[in-house]
Every structure is written in structure tokens, then in C-alpha cells.
Write a structure and sequence with these properties.
The structure is a homodimer of 289-residue chains.
Chain A (H helix, E strand, L loop, with lengths): L1 H23 L3 H11 L12 E3 L9 E6 L2 H9 L4 E6 L10 H5 L3 H12 L3 E4 L2 H5 L4 H10 L5 E2 L2 E11 H11 L6 E3 L5 E8 L5 H9 L5 E4 L4 H13 L5 E4 L2 H16 L8 E3 L11
Parallel strand pairs in A: 2-3, 2-11, 3-4, 8-9, 9-10
Antiparallel strand pairs in A: 1-4, 5-6, 6-8, 7-10
Helix pairs in contact in A: 7-11, 9-10
Chain lengths: 289, 289
């Protein structure tokens, strides 16, 4: 009898320990609350930094930090045992991640992505606005580090850099190599010698791009992407007008990717109970011969 | 006295003849009225097909038809003695060609373009919506002709084509060569064999792109450009989901350029008093090594 009681008590103790270990893992919502507490800027609504899929109350098995929650990234996160995905860019193909049209159309690609999320109990949360609002901008910080440009950065304006003189052609090739980009596009004279650069990762929009190109301390604007009848036509006209300007288009993912690697490093300082891993999104493009 | 009268009369007669010759040249507005009369679809407001710069009552010295009224195109049109520019895409870097912000900012590129327009008395008119609304779509007709694809075109849907089986890699290289494109991007398996294509020139938007990629009779979607977090992420996910899909991104200008060559050919049939010439817009990009 006594032995039975002892055995039962031991089993209970082990179960209790196990439950405590379980409880030690934060929920997805708790991880996001830590982000909000640590990001260093007030949380402002409206924002796209919200849950996009899954149950915020789910216990986190691991965190996958990525530039874009593509189906490929979700598959790799799930295979690596991570159920919380922190993504800089949309999951469902639009800035607001609206899914009504896709659902109504019974879209097969959307259905596949939803099925994967459900099957693995994934939770997807977007971290865009406030990571950019952090001072200095978290994406800029990661990109500067990846490019080895910290020492060239303007302390008063975290998107401006002064480099030793370099031609646009060499600068573009260097960016291509350092960021391992397959498809890149440049507007301007390859032989132009430049020192003054602005880095505007992602799709900052024409107003922001133009205001950078208007500055005397910006000769080359480096961006992720832009509509070709906006920033691109403007840059081409600036070149035709013999202004000392060039535009380098990295592609959206490579232009911000290192900024989310930075985010993973930062999250590891306050998420310690579960693994936090940077899962790079693949550049979607290849260039035909 | 008689001789003086005769001389005076002769001078008057020559002046009158000259005036008649002058009058024979239509105004810019009259050329546009002929376009509206000939395009074969009702004129619908609101539309971006409006005058963007210059005096609509100016007599036309010649018509330059172009894909995009870049500063370079305007310079070449003026050098060729043509003062009416018919452009498919914007002149002032936005779909609505709004200039208030550029003017308020004293933007140097905008000022240069305005100065050139004023100096040469250029008139710029956009021909976008109704050239697409024409049946078949004027841009599609020109692109099909440039690609030698008329025989592959679906008679019931002018954006669909059925080609002899070809790999995505060979198709992309063929497009690059035929359209003389320097920078092109492809999403999908280069070795995928395809026959069913959709051509959506320009920037048709995610809803349209998605509806084409959803179709069983579309394996490859060929576009001008698209935001990378919309159509591009969707296409990449479709490929990851092992759907038989690919996306070819030509760049905005090469994707529609031949459609404005077609427009120049068409305009010559009803503008006969002054020369009508297609002025190609240059691809703005080059690819770094």
C-alpha cells in the first residue's frame, strides 16, 4: 500500500514538473507583448503589426523570424519545430493581409497555405511598422551590418551613408555579391563616381524616394522596389537631365532581409525559453539568359 | 499703280495659300477628337486619357507616339519636329499626373521637364484606358504582332495564348531576345514545359494577375511589373505548392511598348496632314555583373 502511494506520488510529481516545464513556454501573445515592451517606441494604432493566422494563445515551441512568410518559409519553420512566425512582410499577398477575396474565390494557393498553418498549428504575426520605427530603424541597422557600412552611416540620419568614392557599376556589383542577389536593376551611368548614398529598403514609395533624390547629399538611392512609372521614370529623367543621380533596385526581399536577421538577434535577448531562429526568405527570381 | 496692286494681290494670295496650308494642320484637340471617333468604344469618364501639358489648341507639327513620355522621349520628339506627344504612361511620375507636390517642392527634374515642354511648345496627351478598352485591346494586338504570336491567340480571350510546348527557360530567353530586354525576372521552374500562356502587359494588379493564374488554361503569366508582396509572393507560393505555374516579369516598358507602335500605325490611317511617328521609350535599367 505504502509503495503504491509512493509510486503514485512520484508519478504526480513528474507530471507536475512536466506541466511546469510546459507553462514555462510563453504563448504567442506573451512573446508579442515582450516585443512591444522592448521595441523602445510607443505602440501606435492603426498598424499592420498584428496576428495574421493561428491561435495567439498557443504555447510557442520556437520562433522563426523571417522577411516574408512565404509558403516555403512556413514549411521550413514547421520542419524545424517552430510554430511562431514573425514576418516583416505580408503572408496573404496584400499589405492588409485581407483574405476575403481569396477565400471567396476558393483560391488553391491560399488554401494550401491555410492548410499548412492549420496542420502544424502555426501562428503568424507581422512585425513591420514598429521595427522600422525603432531608433535607429531595425531594418537599417541589420542592412548596415550586413553591408559592413556601420562606419559610413550618418549619425543624424540613419538612411544616409558616405562611402569612399566608387563607380555606380562597382557599387552595384558589390551589393549584388554581399547580399547574394540574382536579379538586380540599375538606372544611371555605370561610370558615375559617387560617395553619397541613401538606403531606403523595401517599397518606400515615390514621395519618400523623390525627397531623397532631391537632396544634394544623395547621389545614389538604393531601394527594394518601386512602380516603374513613379520612382523609376523620375530617376531616368534625372539622369537625362544630367543630374548626378542613380537608382539601384535590389529587389524587396534582399533589400530588407538582413534587417530581420537583426530582429532575430534582438529577440534572443528577451525570448530565452524557446529557440529563436532567423529563417531567410528566398529571392523569388532568376534571370533568363 | 496696277503693278503695285497686282504685286499686292499676289502677296495676299500667297499669304492666303500659306494660311490655308497652316489651317490644314489640325490642332492637338482635333487629333484627339479623331482618336475618340476612331477608337471604336464609347468614351468613358473618369479617365486618365486627358491632356497633361501644353496648349490643346496648338497646331500639330507632327505626332510622336510613345509608351512613356520620359524626358528623353520628349527631347527626341522635339528634335524630330513633333509637338504632339501621345503617351501610354504618365509624364509626371504618377497615374493621375498630379504636379502640385512637385511644383511646391521646386523639384529640379520636374522643372527641367516643364521647361523643355514650354521651350518647344509640346502638347502631351495620355492614351491609356481607351486603347486598352479597344477590342481587341490595342496593346495586346501590338504585343502579339511583335512576338509573332497572332496565330497562337485565343479568339475568345485576347490575353490568352496556346504555344507549342516550350520550357519556361527557353520561353523567357525568347521573350528577352524578341523584345530586346536587358533586365528580366522569372519565378518558377526553368525546366517546366508549358503551352498555355497569359499576357497581361503593364501593371494589371494582383486581382487580375491572380485570376489569370487561377485558371487551368494558364500555366505561365507574363506581366510588366507587380509589387513583390502581391503577385510575386503568390506566384512563388504557387510554385512551392507544386502547382504548374510560372511568372515572367518583362518590365513595364517592354511589356507594352509594341502596343504603342501599333497605335502609331493605327493613327496614320486617320492623321494624314502631319507625320505620325513611333518614338520608343528606352528600357531604363541595366543589370550589374
Amino acid at each position: 500500500m505504502r509503495r503504491t502511494v509512493t509510486t503514485a506520488l512520484t508519478a504526480c510529481f513528474i507530471l507536475a514538473l512536466s506541466a511546469a516545464a510546459q507553462d514555462n513556454r510563453p504563448t504567442a501573445r506573451q512573446v508579442i507583448e515582450r516585443i512591444q515592451k522592448n521595441v523602445g517606441v510607443p505602440w501606435r494604432e492603426p498598424t499592420v503589426d498584428t496576428f495574421k493566422a493561428g491561435d495567439p494563445e498557443a504555447r510557442v515551441t520556437g520562433v522563426a523570424v523571417t522577411m516574408m512568410a512565404t509558403l516555403d518559409v512556413l514549411q521550413r519553420a514547421a520542419a524545424g519545430g517552430k510554430n511562431l512566425i514573425i514576418t516583416h512582410e505580408p503572408t496573404f499577398y496584400g499589405h492588409q493581409d485581407q483574405t476575403e477575396d481569396l477565400a471567396r474565390e476558393n483560391d488553391a494557393v491560399f488554401a494550401e497555405k491555410q492548410a499548412l498553418i492549420k496542420k502544424h498549428g502555426l501562428v503568424v504575426w507581422r512585425f513591420h511598422d514598429h521595427w522600422h520605427r525603432r531608433r535607429p530603424d531595425g531594418i537599417q541597422t541589420g542592412m548596415a551590418r550586413a553591408l559592413g557600412w556601420e562606419k559610413y552611416r550618418n549619425p543624424a540620419n540613419d538612411s544616409l551613408y558616405t562611402l569612399p568614392a566608387i563607380t555606380v557599376a562597382v557599387l552595384a556589383s558589390d551589393l549584388k555579391k554581399r547580399l547574394a542577389i540574382k536579379t538586380m536593376r540599375v538606372v544611371g551611368d555605370p561610370a558615375l563616381k559617387v560617395t553619397k548614398l541613401a538606403l531606403s529598403p523595401g517599397a518606400g514609395g515615390f514621395a519618400g524616394h523623390r525627397r531623397l533624390l532631391q537632396r544634394d547629399d544623395v547621389e545614389v538611392l538604393i531601394i527594394g522596389e518601386a512602380p516603374e512609372w513613379e520612382t523609376v521614370e523620375y530617376a531616368a529623367d534625372a539622369v537625362t537631365a544630367k543630374r548626378k543621380k542613380a537608382l539601384i533596385i535590389l529587389g524587396h526581399i534582399p533589400s530588407e532581409q538582413a534587417g530581420m536577421d537583426e530582429c532575430a538577434r534582438w529577440m534572443k535577448t528577451f525570448v530565452t525559453e524557446v529557440p529563436v531562429e532567423f529563417v531567410p526568405a528566398n529571392e523569388p527570381f532568376w534571370a533568363p539568359k
